Amino acid sequence: MTEQSSGTVQSSGTVNDEDAVTLLPGAPHSMEHNSGRPISWVAVTVIIVGFVIGGVAFIPHPTWWAIWVGAGVAAVGFIFIAFTNAVNEDWY
Fold this sequence. Notes:
Blueprint: H1 17-22, H2 38-56, H3 64-84, H4 86-89
Helix pairs in contact: 2-3
C-alpha cells in the first residue's frame, strides 16, 4: 500500500504545518483568527442564556411561565444582534 502525505513536502523533507492545515477541506486559507467583536459575544451569550432557561423549564414537567421567560430573553438577544449589524460585520 502506498503512503499518502498530509501536506506539501519542502526541500528539507519536512512537512510544513501551515500548508498541511490549509490543505484540509473546508479550512481557511490563512492562519489568521477572527474571534468577532465583543458585542457579538454578548448577544450570543444572551441568546444561549434564554435557551438554557427555556430548556430547564421543561424539567421535570413544562413550567410555561419559565419557558416564555426563556423565549423572551432569547428574543431580546436576537433583536440585540439584529440592530447592531454584528452578524454582517463579523463575517470572514
